[in-house]
């Protein structure tokens, strides 16, 4: 039921950076801990966003600094910034577990 819980968080469109990372892990198809463009496209599509393929491509351009085709943990802050700006999400850096 983790998906249902995450869906509730997305409906609110506000979450911590840790919750955002946990939500993204649901879409990590190969479980390698890195987010591919296809993983990201599925995640954006789950938001019922139009043109998820295009938004995923733009997010990869913004976040994938080393251009290896995946977003790694070191690049996650750039993806968070993109989501805050372009996906109308509010992701804050404070995690209650910290």
From TrEMBL:
Keywords: Calcium, Repeat. It holds the Pfam family EF-hand_5. InterPro entries: Centrin_CML-like, EF-hand-dom_pair, EF_Hand_1_Ca_BS, EF_hand_dom. CDD domains: EFh. SUPFAM superfamilies: EF-hand. GO terms for molecular function: calcium ion binding. PROSITE patterns: EF_HAND_1 (PS00018), EF_HAND_2 (PS50222). Residues 15-50, 55-86 form the EF-hand domain. PANTHER family: CALCIUM BINDING PROTEIN (PTHR23050). This is Calcium-binding protein CML38-like. It comes from Canna indica.
